[in-house]
């Protein structure tokens, strides 16, 4: 199945662009997608904490909702889903 | 005391926008009371443009004092203001910009104990804060009062914003269920300039009932590449602040 992944702000630099289509096996979840996307140590440092879990303050949306409203990183993806990955912005 | 009808001087002053809004529209701006949370980088930009536009009453709350490291982006505060309360510095500059605007400034921390009284008499809330703890407090206050909440945040060359209308849109907690860790991120001064200016535009359009608001859309500004992108949003049915229901 194919899903579309959109990277925002500083993550564009990490992933070498703002958007890509990713081919995944049926039933892949968000964690599996992140593992597929991260093929460099720079990328893993941006997205994962020291224990190997995705950093909670990286905002990940499946279509129009944050993954916390589904099953977090265990959220299963389906053909045509759009995943947005947004780094934190909080200064004023 | 600000009168609710325009004076002759005000008609002349706002002539170039009255041609878009009409005198009735300009009087709507004059009757509005806008709460601006924060007088830093975003606050400087939002407040300057709302003051210039002729919002009748602005209430500004910030508990901070001006430091040298603020001056690259917080354009209401100057060298001579270092050590002053930000709200005092802001009031002085904004008062000189447009004496027709009634400015109420309060040096106070916005938290769950103070927010209800602080926003009690305001028609809408502008988020110009620098942390998510205060943003969540303001989000809940806006939901409770059923008034709009104009979110903005920045980092480096990047910024984000959305317009939250209780009952119609995703709330801040729907979009960001968890706060990022509090640190002092880098900020290039133009970024809060851009985002604050756009927030002021949303406030003006909301008051006038003109144009389309940034509802259920998170706008992300990339100043590095000069791009604006959007993430479409919807209410989160599991949201702990608004519950996501149609009536919330």
Features:
heterodimer, A: alpha+beta, Ubiquitin-like (UB roll), 5-stranded mixed sheet, globular, B: 248 residues, alpha/beta, Rossmann fold, 8 helices, 8 strands
Number of separate structural domains of chain B: 1
Task: Give the strand order of the largest sheet of chain A, numbering strands 1, 2, ... along the chain.
Answer: 2-1-5-3-4
**In the CATH hierarchy, what is the class of chain B?**
Alpha Beta
Strand content of chain B: 15-25%
Major interchain interface with per-chain residue totals: A-B, 24 and 48 residues
Cross-sheet strand order for the largest sheet of chain B = 3-2-1-4-5-6-7-8
Mean pLDDT of chain A: 92
Q: Determine the structural class of chain B based on helices, strands and strand pairing.
A: alpha/beta
Q: How many runs of DSSP E, i.e. beta strands of chain B? A: 8
Folded structure, characterized:
The complex is a heterodimer of chains A (92) and B (248). Chain A has 92 residues and is an alpha+beta fold. Chain A has one domain: Beta-grasp domain (Ubiquitin-like (UB roll)), CATH 3.10.20.30. In chain A, 23% of the residues lie in helices and 24% in strands. Chain A has three helices and five strands. Chain A has helices at residues 10-15, 30-37, 41-47, and strands at residues 2-7, 19-23, 59-62, 65-66, 82-86. Chain A has a five-stranded mixed beta sheet. In chain A, β3 (59-62) and β4 (65-66) form a beta hairpin. Chain A starts with a strand and ends in a 6-residue tail after the last strand. The model of chain A has no long low-confidence stretch (mean pLDDT 92). With 248 residues, chain B is α/β, with parallel strands linked by helices. Chain B has a single domain (32-232), classed as NAD(P)-binding Rossmann-like Domain (Rossmann fold). Chain B is 36% helix and 18% strand. Chain B has helices at residues 8-13, 15-31, 41-53, 86-97, 115-119, 132-145, 172-175, 190-208; strands at residues 33-37, 57-61, 102-106, 124-127, 149-155, 158-164, 217-222, 227-232. In chain B, strands 3-2-1-4-5-6-7-8 form an eight-stranded mixed beta sheet, with helices on both faces. In chain B, α3 links the parallel β1 (33-37) and β2 (57-61). The longest helix of chain B is centred in the last third of the chain and has 19 residues, at 190-208. Chain B is globular and about 50 Å long. Chain B starts with 7 loop residues before the first helix and ends in a 16-residue tail after the last strand. The model of chain B has no long low-confidence stretch (mean pLDDT 95). Chain A binds chain B through residues 6, 8-10, 12, 18, 56-57, 59, 61, 63-66, 68-69, 84, 86-92, and chain B through 38, 40-43, 127-132, 135, 152-156, 158-160, 174-182, 184-185, 187, 192, 216, 218, 220, 222, 225, 227, 229, 231-234, 236-239.
């Amino acid at each position: 199945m194919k899903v579309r992944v959109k990277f925002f702000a500083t993550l564009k630099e990490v992933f070498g662009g703002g958007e890509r289509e990713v081919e995944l096996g049926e039933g892949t979840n968000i964690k599996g997608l992140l593992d597929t996307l991260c093929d460099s140590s720079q990328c893993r440092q941006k997205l994962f904490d020291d224990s190997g879990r995705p950093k909670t303050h990286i905002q990940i949306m499946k279509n129009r909702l944050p993954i916390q409203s589904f099953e977090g990183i265990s959220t299963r993806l389906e053909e045509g889903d759009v995943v947005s990955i947004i780094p934190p912005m909080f200064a004023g | 005391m600000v009168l609710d009808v325009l004076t002759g001087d005000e008609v002349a002053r706002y002539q170039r926008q009255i041609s878009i809004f009409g005198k009735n529209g300009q009087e709507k701006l004059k009757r509005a009371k806008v709460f601006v949370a924060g007088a830093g980088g975003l606050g400087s930009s939002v407040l300057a443009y709302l003051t210039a536009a002729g919002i009748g009453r602005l209430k500004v709350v910030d508990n901070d004092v001006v430091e040298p490291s603020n001056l690259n982006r917080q354009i209401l505060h100057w060298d001579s203001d270092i050590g002053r309360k930000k709200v005092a510095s802001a009031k002085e500059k904004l008062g000189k910009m447009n004496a027709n605007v009634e400015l109420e400034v309060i040096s106070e921390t916005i938290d769950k104990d103070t927010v209800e009284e602080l926003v009690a008499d305001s028609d809408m809330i502008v988020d110009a804060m620098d942390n998510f703890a205060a943003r969540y407090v303001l989000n809940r206050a806006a939901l409770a009062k059923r008034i709009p909440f104009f979110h903005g945040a920045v980092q480096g060359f990047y910024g984000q914003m959305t317009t939250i209308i209780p009952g119609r849109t995703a709330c801040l907690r729907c979009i960001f269920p968890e706060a990022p860790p509090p640190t002092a991120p880098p900020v290039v001064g133009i970024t809060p300039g851009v985002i604050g200016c756009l927030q002021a535009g949303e406030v003006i359009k909301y008051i006038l009932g003109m144009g389309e608001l940034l509802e259920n859309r998170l706008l992300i500004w990339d100043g590095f590449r000069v791009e604006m992108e959007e993430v479409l949003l919807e209410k989160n049915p599991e949201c702990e602040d608004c519950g996501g229901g149609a009536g919330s």
